[in-house]
Design goal:
The protein is an alpha/beta fold and 229 residues long. It has seven helices and ten strands. The longest helix is centred in the last third of the chain and has 18 residues. The radius of gyration is 17 Å and the shape is globular. The two termini are 17 Å apart. Bound molecules: adenosine-5'-triphosphate.
């Protein structure tokens, strides 16, 4: 196994409700190697998004430790986490969070601008990323005039524009028809295969899951190999 990008040691995540506590992750021990591609399956409410949010440093474990490149994320300041997210992680969420008042190119150029690149450089990178997802011709179009599948591909372009070492995707084919979903799946597969992007994808879509090298099921707070593995 390549050196792990992520290591989870006895990670627990407990949400406190008004009346009771909900244990979503219950002592997860897991490692994700560089270049790995992992699909996480599981019933609604089983904790898939929670798992992804922990990996994305958007939330913290209740106990246990989560290491990125061998470093305990609990030791990172908020600023260090923000730098990590912007420089190494790409996110694709089901509701892609594109900014409707901007063009596709401007949306995809946003991470580069936030990282301090000039407008021209950020837009060059954005144009290349849009080409990669087959949307090179849609750059000047307002993002709210794109179809659902095009928006999802634009969100992937935005997630990968700065060549993150890790891509975290939550239901990237949710709301897409089968053909468009397949196209998004092919794209994710190529990013992993050709660029070596480490990939963790949460999905209900078994066709999509089958494209990745490992399939895991989140059940009763634990991650276990899915039956098809
Ligand atoms: N901030 C929170 N506070 C309290 N409970 C939460 C919070 N976030 C998530 N939960 C609960 O934790 C459980 C797991 O949620 P999560 O969103 O991780 O599930 P999921 O597997 O991604 O579900 P789905 O497939 O429906 O998106 C759910 O019961 C949810 O209601």
């Amino acid at each position: 196994m390549n050196s792990p990008v992520y290591e989870l040691r006895q990670v627990r995540k407990v949400y406190s409700g008004p009346a009771e506590q909900l244990t979503v992750l219950d002592g997860v021990d897991f490692a994700i190697a560089r270049g790995d591609s992992l699909a996480v399956l599981g019933a609604s409410g089983s904790g898939k998004s929670t798992f992804l949010h922990l990996l994305g440093t958007l939330d913290t474990p209740s106990s246990g430790s989560l290491l990125f490149d061998g470093k305990d994320l609990a030791q990172f300041s908020d600023r260090e986490k923000a730098v990590l997210r912007n420089s190494q992680l790409g996110f694709v969420f089901q509701f892609h969070h594109l900014l409707p008042e901007f063009t596709t190119l401007e949306n995809v150029a946003m991470p580069g601008r936030i990282a301090g690149k000039s407008r021209a450089e950020a837009e060059d990178l954005a144009a290349a990323a849009l080409d990669q997802v087959g949307l090179g011709h849609k750059g000047r179009q307002q993002v709210n005039t794109l179809s659902g599948g095009e928006r999802q591909r634009a969100a992937i372009a935005r997630a990968v524009v700065l060549s993150p070492s890790v891509l975290l995707a939550d239901e990237p084919t949710g709301n897409l028809d089968e053909r468009t979903g397949d196209r998004v799946g092919d794209l994710l597969f190529r990013l992993n295969d050709e660029l070596g992007t480490t990939m963790v994808v949460v999905t209900h879509n078994l066709r999509l899951a089958s494209l990745f090298s490992r399939q895991y099921l989140l059940h009763d707070g634990r991650l276990q190999p899915a039956a098809s593995e």
